[in-house]
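This protein record is not my work; I was only asked to verify it. Where you disagree with what is written, explain briefly why. This is what I was given:
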Amino acid sequence: MSPVRGLVTRALAVMLALVPARALPLDSRFFTTSDGVRLHALEGGRPGAPAIAFVPGWSMPAGIWHFQLEALGTRYRVAALDPRGQGQSEAPRTGYTLERRAADLREFLAPYRHAVLVGWSLGALESLEMVRAHGEASIAGLVLVDSSVGEPPAPPAGVFKESLQSNRRRALDEFMRAIFRRPPPEAELSALVTGALRMRLEDSLALLSYPVPREYWRAAAHGVHVPLLYVVTPQFAEQAANLQRNRPGTEAVVFEHAGHALFVDEPERFNALLEDFARRAFRSR
């Protein structure tokens, strides 16, 4: 190679290194669970790379994680599940139990080796149950986002279930607006409400009524052996401090100025936090 050509080649390499990596397009993946239900997931990022898998909260679709899928897909394999009855997944008349939803998560994770599992709200509890019931062989780390994990103090009792039974559409509309510090456009809020209405009322209520005491979740969180990150808003700040004290090694971060959907309100901060945690979790595996 001539000296001039060598200089040009090295210059091009430097220029390419300075161009931000772009996530590969997201695809839809459908799979059938062991009880015969067709579930949907969004999947993309780098083929063969370590995986980060996302589980949304009650009634929410996989697409709620779009900021994370796009940003983290530049370096990782990324996937987000539409739990049964949510998003583009089938809405069967059965399976809205803690045990079945945890089994759904295990089957969602089957294609990935040692994924970092990220669960939000109800999805955090179902992720904890997946680990408790099925073990940690499929995960390198666990991230719980803004969900009560059984540590004191207990969150105040609400009347949300009664509101759903009284006027479901209005209750859902108020719920969707309340979870964001900066509400998305009206069309997006309306789509979230419409999506939540796909599930039968009795099934949506069943997901809010898992028959286990708070101590069950505390024991499940304490029993996690892989790296654990607990990311919360101020409503769970005391629980986060107690979990750090009672389960040594827990990482906890409070998003002081975000709503319940903190990863939507502050995506750059959340993505940087998650990427750093995932890098260390995969390294320690």
